Amino acid sequence: MPESAILPGGDLVLGGVASPVEHFYDLTGYYSQPLVVRLTPSGQEVWRVTLPATNDAYVNSMVVGADGTIYLAGSFSGELTAGATTLTSSGVDALVVALSVNGEVLWAKQFGNGAAQRAWHLAMDGTGDLIIGGPFMGTIDFGGGLLSATNGEDIFLARLDASGEHIASRAIDDAEYDTLWSLDVASDGTVLIGAEHTEDFMVSLYVAAYAPDLGVELWRTDTNMSEPQVRARADGTLVTVGSYLQMLHLDEGGAQISAVSYDAGTFGLLYPRLAVTPDGLNCVTGAALSTVDLGTGPLTPRRRRRRSHRVLRCRLDAYVRDPARRGHLVRRRALSPARFRKRARRWTIRGRYRDLRRRSDLAGAPRRLRGAAQSLRPGV
Q: Would you say residue 379 lies in a domain?
């Protein structure tokens, strides 16, 4: 998911990933690398910065400091170049990068060992400290000593200063698998998380608060909502929402003040996000796969026509055996959907392929084309 933030002067910064290959189906050298773009309020590009990588690298979260410094959190494997710094990972490492307001790389740091560690969330408190969190396996060290994942996959939390130096860190290892869904910081420095842990196939979803030094868990409240998103409010309370649009208003100690639920349809929201505006409005975004109703009437997502099957069918004849060439596997030129249907119908009429689904020999074709052939009926 692309990330966005507003610079002090009003410009927009977008963070995401880009690929050096032009077409998604060209899998040769296909991988993602971090991309940051600065735009004016009218949408004109000011600059863009790409962090070249030899394997997949991602930007998962982004914040902007009061001086305009842009901080990125993500993960990478292989080699990644950030300015004059080249980072190398033998597994998947957590990544934190700082950019100036002009797009220059100020510093870049990696955290992890040979296993998998990913920085999923990044927040900034009122003093300019960075709080990062995410899942990890194996061990990870932010400068305050090794944190170990003792139960499969655990959660790390770390507080860093504006230069990326360690202030505090801890691991959360409640169960076999722990997942961090959201992270925020209250005005007093309290770190808030929305998370889940799984043990013996039982899933528990909760919101928790930790002291500013991350040493003590202050409270924990079970929410029973999937992908819990939590945000602090200016009055010291907090709000949390899940993918099925259940919203809780909690006080400073995690006790429920109020609750409201909306109709999220059959599938709820994919990638729900929660933000609180300066005037106190709760803003929820996400991808709706079914009709939702937020109290103002049903909202139905626009469904796009799927063209993938038509494309696969029109290219299917590139991998059939040609009777005129004694059954040799030949590669014909791709046809348009209409011409392909006409060709398939002619094959059926002439008896060359009484059942195109059964007689087509696609042993040398890509798997996705073999699947398309199984769904194709003669005479279509």
A: no
